[in-house]
Each structure stands twice: as structure tokens, then as C-alpha cells.
Automatic annotation (TrEMBL):
This is Rho GTPase activating protein 1. It comes from Sparus aurata (Gilthead sea bream). Residues 60-215 form the CRAL-TRIO domain. The chain crosses the membrane at residues 154-175, 238-256. The gene is ARHGAP1. SMART domains: RhoGAP, SEC14.
């Protein structure tokens, strides 16, 4: 993976690209936009709701969602939410409302921008047929204010071409220094393993095929490493052992009054060191690091690393469709579902939810209400068998988690 950051580019784009001459943003004669962002349309982002298994045909974002251009893929290796944008799934211009696409993207990000998050952009498949206009790209960048840019920790552009690199040079005058440092180029899918497990991403077949062609075109000595297979548990491996959950919760108790607990990432190097220590059977004392966010990230990572989600694949359909249960019956139905879990899963879930209830009891200080905790923990308690999390499922799963936190005193009695 290379970090060809915008701040490292030369002041003269022509120097970077031979004889290619590029005008600055201010010099461009931008064409008039086909549509402006009216207030009524902008408000659609506020009504964004992925709370049903399938968006109805009359939903304002149905035409966008059905293409699966934007996906949520759980957390990365450092506990940050991962948002994926697939260029190859964008249909031709006349079949896509780019304004609505922007609003849909904003609506998705609105659910996560208060926490640290990662954006992965699969560039392969962007063609002259589906490529948005420069004026749209300009307006899109400006539409995302500080709220969206502050907590994005990294933007990974996978399979970059000369076009996208040229475009970033062209936009350099309006891209901030801080944001430019967050942009990284990824040449091969295997390089993403340092950031997120590729098996949890819904990578389009076209992108995988293109990656294989790129690898095949290299000389044998220049072949990048393949994505490593999921390794079997080590003899002393803690990640993947449900009973370890209680230990991590104890360390997180000290952060009950820290604002944003569970919403911030930790030092990347420390996260890897702690994982390695636990998996080798070494003792870890979080008091030595004095970083409660480290323990919080390890807790979320632990849940995501389980070979099967804590709520199990068996309950997936029941939980995704739980929104159809009447409010009067929710506590009873939820109690039945939870009690059907294997004994160890039930005990661990009860311990975790009881602990999170303590966290939300201090929400006036730490700002972690049941709704906020559900957004953080929902995708780490349940996911599909393909390890991915679609936008249509994440809403119901988060809703179930929030209700579980709201009704925990009735469910676990």
C-alpha cells in the first residue's frame, strides 16, 4: 500500500505528469449543474432510514440503494466503522440520479460520523458511461463539511488509475492539508489486509477479477502477497474464545465517565501488540497504557473476531425482521430469542449488555446513550454468513440491539 498523499505532490502538476497541463479549480469553467440542492431534497438525508430489511419501491432512496453502490462492512482492524463505495456498481448517467446518490451517501455517513470511521473506494469500473461530472465532484466535496471530515481516519483508493491521481491533483487547491494526509492508494486487494479483513467486504466480482489480472501481469518476483487465510486458533489464543469477554469489560469500567467511550479508535501499534500478547497467552495490564480507548477497541475487535457472532447465525433472520414485532410483545419475543442461545453465548451476552447498561447510565457525561451504543455494538454482535453487513440489515440489527439495551431488565430476568 502506498501513501501518495496530496500534500506530498509537487506544487506544479505538470512536473508530476509530464507535459500534461492542468488548470486550478478557480480557473475551471464549471458547467452549470443540472440540479441544485434544494432544501426539500437536502432534508432527505435527515429522513434516511435503513431500518427495514428491504427498502420499499416508493422509498426516496430505493433507486439508489438497489444498486448497492454504498455498503457498510463492519469494523476495520482498529475498531473503526468501514464504509465501502463501489464505482463499478454505478449505472450509466441516465439511469442514476447523482444528487440522490450524494444524499444517500450523506445519510449513510450521518449514522457514523460521530465516531471514527474508514472509507474504502473501489475505483475499478468507473468509465465514461458512469463517471460523474467534475462539477458534481466539486460540489460533493464541499457538501461534506467538517462534521464528516473530522472523524474519517483514512480514505483508501483501491486500484487507482492515472485519471484518479490527476483528478486529485486538480482538486488539490480545495482539499485541506489534514484531509489530504488521510488519502492512501492501494494497488492490490491483499494490501487491504493491513486495514480490514477482505473476507468481511462485499467486493464486487469485477473488482476481484481485475485484481487477479493485475497480479498475473506481474513478474513472479514482483508478485504481491495473497490475502492470508484465516488462521486456526493458537493454543493460547484468546480472540475467538467467548469467555474472555468478561475480562475486557472489567478494564473498560474505568472509562464510564469518558466522553465518547467506544466511539474512538486507539493507537494502531498498541492494538496489534495487545492482540499478539493475548493470542500468545501473555498477560496484558491496561493500567500500564492508561488508555481506556485501547481496551474499548480490543473489546469490539474481540466480538468481531468470534468465529460466529455472539447472537449466532441461527437468529439472524429473526433479528433482522424483529421490527415487525409489536411493541407490546417485543420484550417477550426478545427474551425467547435470547434464551435460545447456547449457554455460553447467553452468559456472555447477559454480561455484556449489563455492562453496557452501566455505560448508558452515565450517558449525560459520556454521551453514550442506548442508541449510540447500538450503532457501535450492533454490527459486532451479529452479521451474515458472508461476513458482510448490508445497509438494509444494519438498521434492523442496530434497532434490535437498542431495544435489548432498553429492555435488558426484562429480558434477563
Amino acid at each position: 500500500m502506498s501513501s501518495e498523499l496530496l500534500v506530498d505532490l509537487g506544487e506544479d502538476p505538470a512536473t508530476q505528469l509530464g507535459q500534461l497541463k492542468l488548470a486550478t479549480i478557480e480557473d475551471q469553467q464549471w458547467p452549470a449543474d443540472e440540479s441544485t440542492l434544494s432544501k426539500s431534497e437536502t432534508d432527505l438525508s435527515q429522513r434516511f432510514d435503513a431500518g427495514s430489511p428491504h427498502l420499499p419501491w416508493d422509498h426516496p432512496f430505493y433507486d439508489i440503494a438497489r444498486h448497492q453502490i454504498i455498503e457498510v462492512a463492519g469494523d476495520d482492524n482498529f475498531g473503526r466503522k468501514v464504509i465501502v463505495f463501489n464505482a463499478c456498481r454505478m449505472p450509466p448517467h441516465h439511469q442514476l440520479d447523482h444528487h440522490k446518490l450524494l444524499m444517500y451517501l450523506k445519510g449513510t455517513l450521518d449514522q457514523y460520523v460521530e465516531s471514527d470511521y474508514t472509507l474504502i473506494y473501489f475505483h475499478h469500473g468507473l468509465t465514461s458511461e458512469n463517471k460523474p461530472s467534475l462539477s458534481w465532484l466539486r460540489d460533493a466535496y464541499r457538501e461534506f463539511d467538517r462534521k464528516y471530515k473530522k472523524n474519517i481516519k483514512a480514505l483508501y483508493i483501491v486500484h487507482p488509475t492515472m485519471f484518479i491521481k490527476t483528478l486529485l491533483i486538480l482538486f488539490k487547491p480545495i482539499i485541506s492539508f489534514k484531509f489530504g494526509r488521510k488519502i492512501n492508494y492501494v494497488s492490490y486487494l491483499s494490501e487491504l489486509e493491513d486495514v480490514v479483513k477482505c473476507e468481511q467486504l462485499i467486493i464486487p466480482a469485477r473488482v476481484k477479477e481485475y485484481d487477479n489480472k493485475l497480479r498475473a501481469s506481474l513478474k513472479p518476483t514482483a508478485q504481491p502477497p495473497m490475502s492470508p487465510p484465516r488462521s486456526p486458533p493458537l493454543p493460547n489464543q484468546m480472540f475467538g474464545v467467548t469467555a474472555f469477554l468478561c475480562v475486557l469489560c472489567v478494564f473498560c469500567v474505568s472509562g464510564l465517565e469518558i466522553e465518547g467511550i467506544f466511539r474512538r479508535s486507539a493507537n494502531v501499534t498498541l492494538v496489534k501488540e495487545v492482540q499478539l500478547k493475548y493470542n500468545s497467552g501473555a498477560t496484558v495490564d491496561f493500567r500500564e497504557t492508561e488508555d481506556v480507548h485501547l481496551a474499548a477497541v480490543i473489546l469490539k475487535t474481540f466480538l468481531r473476531e468470534l468465529p460466529e457472532p455472539l447472537l449466532t447465525y441461527q437468529l439472524y433472520n429473526d433479528i433482522v425482521n424483529f421490527a415487525s414485532v409489536s411493541s407490546d410483545s417485543q420484550a417477550t419475543i426478545m427474551k425467547t430469542l435470547v434464551e435460545s442461545l447456547p449457554e455460553e453465548n447467553y452468559a456472555s451476552l447477559r454480561y455484556l449488555i449489563t455492562f453496557l447498561a452501566q455505560v448508558s447510565a452515565n450517558s449525560e457525561v459520556n454521551k453514550m446513550t442506548n442508541s449510540n451504543l447500538a450503532v457501535v455494538f450492533g454490527p459486532n454482535l451479529l452479521w451474515g454468513r458472508d461476513n458482510a453487513m448490508s445497509l438494509s440489515a444494519i438498521g434492523p440489527i442496530n434497532n434490535f440491539t437498542r431495544t435489548l439495551l432498553d429492555q435488558q431488565h426484562l429480558v434477563f430476568t
